[in-house]
Amino acid sequence: MAVNWLSIREALLNGEPVLVFDSLSREAETDMVFYAGVVDYKKIAFLRREAGGLICYVSGRVFRERLGLSFLNETLNHHPVYRYLVSRKPRYGDPPAFNIWVNHVDTHTGISDYDKATTIRRLHDVAELVYKGFDEDAIDVFTREFYAPGHVPVLTSRGIGVRKGHTELVTALALLTGLTPSMVIAEMLSEGSSLPRGEAIRYARRHGLHYINGFDIVVEAEKRGLVDD
User: What pLDDT score does 133 carry?
Assistant: First the structure.
């Protein structure tokens, strides 16, 4: 069945989550995904209850490059102790996509649903500035209004031509649906393990949600020339 990208766009803009599966040859995990532009504390609480994995903010290559961010493993590689840890990769083989962990300055501890929503919504504002070409404004907001380390991990895409993790997949999904690459993700967990694919598909059907295979995102992104974003 062909993927209805317009319907997915409408769902994301309406504040509905979509489920994205990477592949059986990688993590074999399903992430629950919201568009960051519509996130509030209730959606963060929903991710925490219904998905259960680490809640992350995701954007694209342009976000990273315009703000001058680096990948965390590259930064830690210069530390005399941390460099031994970052020399190892996860079992699925890809380098991680983490850049930094932040809180917004208006948060209390940064960990509550309300605080995370505050941080994520302002990160979305930064992404909007970046992708509209207002680089100086984006840098100003980012450097003035956030502090690190915090409770919201920021991840950016390495491009699906290099890596086909959820960071790259949901960035490509945003671009394929005409949205600013600004997403919130969390792995769907079962007790003791990741939620099996079959259970994730049944969850999507039960709740009327889009379930998207990473393969379909990769194929469409390659067709449209979006492999580097």
Answer: 97
**pLDDT tens for residues 126-156?**
999 999 999 999 999 999 999 999 999 999 9
Q: With contact defined as beta carbons under 8 Å apart, do 177 and 12 qualify?
A: yes
Active site members: 31, 56, 92, 103, 151, 187
- 43 pLDDT higher than 90: yes
116 close to 55: Cβ distance less than 8 angstroms: yes
User: What is the predicted pLDDT for the residue at 56?
Assistant: 98
DSSP assignment of the chain: ----HHHHHHHHHTT--EEEE--TTTT--EEEEEEGGG--HHHHHHIIIIIBS--EEEE-HHHHHHHT---HHHHHTTSTTHHHHHTS--TT-PPP-EEEEEEETT-SSS-SHHHHHHHHHHHHHHHHHHHTT-HHHHHHHHHHHEEEEEEEEEEE---TTT--SHHHHHHHHHHHTT--SEEEEEEBEETTEEPPHHHHHHHHHHHT--EEEHHHHHHHHHHHT-TT-
Pairing between strand 146-156 and 56-59?
A: parallel
Instruction: State both tokens at 8.
Output: 């997915």
Positive or negative: CA dihedral 175, 180, 182, 183: negative
Residue 103 dihedral angles phi and psi, to the nearest 5°: -125, 150
